[in-house]
Amino acid sequence: MFLTVEHDDASMGSSEEVIRLYNQGYDCAQCIVKAMIDRIDCDEETAMKAVSSMSMGLLEGSICGGILGALAVIGLKYGSATPDASTTGITIIKRAQFLMEFKKKYNGLTCPEIMGLDVRKDEDNLRAFKEGIYDHFCPNMAADILEILERIIE
Hints:
This protein is an all-alpha fold. The chain has one domain. About 65% of the residues lie in helices and about 0% in strands. The protein has 8 helices and no strands. Helix 1 crosses helix 8. The longest helix is centred in the middle third of the chain and has 21 residues.
């Protein structure tokens, strides 16, 4: 049940990439990480495994998996494996930039806030499938996430 979704933006290459990844079956967090893998210091297999449990708001009504994937990319790009105040500062600034840009377009950070549905509830999950939210809304939002990341990652 994979559909091609169009996204209106000047950065169509990125949008098409993330939608192509959705169509291949990757989840929201994985789409973001896989699309950005050449910009971070981590091998693809490790990065993909690390975010493989982050989709659909953790099925807890929590932060969107695409956002978690973006934060993982920011951490892998700017973070440090050891205590380092300057690296931590840059990472926090990049996280704040990402979240600020995301919130300009979307009404929150959790799946229920963003979609207006709580997919932990059977009726909302069924509605999300019937209305194509997983096939249309989520891939387009992931394309927006990727475009925000590309603007803030140097």
